Amino acid sequence: MTLRPSDRPSAPRGDASRDDERRTRPERGRSTTDGGPSSDPAPEPGAVDAADGAAAVDPGSDRFVAAVAVDGEVLFAGPSVPAVLGVEREALLGEDLLARVHPNDRDPVSDALSAVATDRTVTHRLRHASGGFVWVESVVDEELAPEFGGRVVTARRVDVDRAFPERFRQFLEYGTDLVTVVDADGRVRYESPSVEEVLGYEQGSTVGRSPLGYVHPDDRERVTERFYHALDDPEAAPTMEYRYRTADGDWVWLESRTRSLPDDAAVGRLLVNSRDVSDRKARERRLADRNERLDRFAGIVSHDLRNPLSVIRGSMEMARLKGDTDPLERGERAVDRIDRLVSELLTLARQGSGIDEPTEFDLEGVVRDAWATAGSEDATLVVGADARVRGDRGRLRQALENLFRNAVEHACEVDADLTVVVSATDGGVIVADDGAGIDPAHREDAFEPGFTTTPDGTGYGLDIVREIVESHGWTVELRPDADPPLPPGAPRPDGACFAIEAPGPDAVPGTEPWIDG
After folding, report:
1. Rounded Cα–Cα distance for residues 339 and 464 (Å)
2. What is the CA radius of gyration of the chain?
3. HSE-up of 79 (CA within 13 Å, CB side)?
4. Which residue among 117, 250, 408, 432 has the highest number of C-beta atoms inside a 10 angstrom radius?
5. pLDDT tens string for the chain (517 positions)?
6. Where do the segments described as Disordered lie (predicted)?
């Protein structure tokens, strides 16, 4: 079937087979966002003068008909060509239509003109006489037209200039929300200028494409179901929150509200109003993190602090009844444990989900400062390769202090000499010792809150280490097979080994934490 200039193609709303088709139709490839020169280029030869052409063509025409050979040669150009492309129809005759198609859209247009194409409806850009590009939807006849020796092509404009009246476009230009109109097939007919500010795409670059291809894979199934429900049911007006890919490959959280347009609306089927809610989602995550932390503290206070308090009460009662002070020593140890618990709980409470003001510093300096606080006279510190670090120096020092304290306390249990090694690697930092190590059966639980293998331990030292490392966007794990760089003559550690993995400065934005080993 050939679409004539007076035809207005549309999909019947209740056509079930068409609904199935649009749900299973594969996504078309994305095009780049370069839509043409940013400056005003000189008009090409054959361009229509606005005053001279006003009487010859209908300025409101939004489509034209042409006959095109398989190799792209224009054999016939309809009278509405000047209204759509700004050139005289005679100037288009004999021209290669593919040369006028945007380079990124040329392959699907060429395929549609070929004899083996299965999809002969293509949304693409055509160069206007002004030097810019306009978006059109071209429908190519399956059969060759014998009177022309080529295929009849009906091209209809679908870009911003024809989607809304001028007064509405001027209103949308100043809006901060993103306004999108999709047609009955679920393809974008119009996006407001704010798409450049919110998502980084050039306005019009996603016209003719399904927005679902840009939705995060984890959100796509849920959004697709509600999207098509809104298309099929005029009464549906869902509100959705989901992640959407930006032009630079990042993800932003969008909140979208949909509303069906009247059946006779020329602009499309569904209106989608979206706004960037990434900051709000970040606040919600921080609040959820704080609530989770409060729940954890409630469990600690009700369990971990109650046990040593019971010990103190029992010891005081025994001392009172027997007139003996020996039980008070047991109570004193319980008091010391409470003091450590309170200190570590306060540390956990002050940990946030991120760091505020990272600075640059040397790894060796913060390592030696931490050892001066948490090291032991009976243990030896060996610093291997140094590194430049960007992060929160105070909190990283606290993490190292907890690792050193963990190594020293477990060495004291077996009354053994201890060597602790800290060295930068290509992927971060290694903190290892030559002590007894951690039982393989306990490795998965080592960083769990409250987990300890010693009677006087609190179980929160390594949990604090994990919190600090993850607040930098890094990871920490036990890695018994690590082989850190060592100074000549330094012993190879074969005990516990903690590996902090962090990106280098070239792998993250300039303001994010990194380790340059």
Report:
1. 16
2. 35
3. 11
4. 432
5. 333 333 333 333 334 333 443 333 333 333 333 333 333 444 555 555 543 443 344 545 788 999 999 889 999 999 999 988 889 989 999 999 999 998 888 888 888 888 676 778 888 888 888 777 788 889 998 888 888 888 899 998 876 544 455 555 556 666 678 988 888 888 888 888 888 889 998 877 888 788 999 999 999 999 999 999 998 888 888 899 999 999 999 999 999 999 888 876 666 788 899 999 998 888 888 777 777 766 666 666 655 566 666 777 777 777 777 777 666 776 676 676 676 666 666 665 555 555 667 899 999 999 999 998 888 888 899 999 999 999 989 889 889 988 998 888 877 655 567 899 999 999 999 999 988 788 788 778 888 876 776 666 667 778 888 888 988 999 999 987 777 778 777 778 888 899 999 999 999 887 889 999 7
6. 1-55
Three-class secondary structure assignment of 2-13: CCCCCCCCCCCC
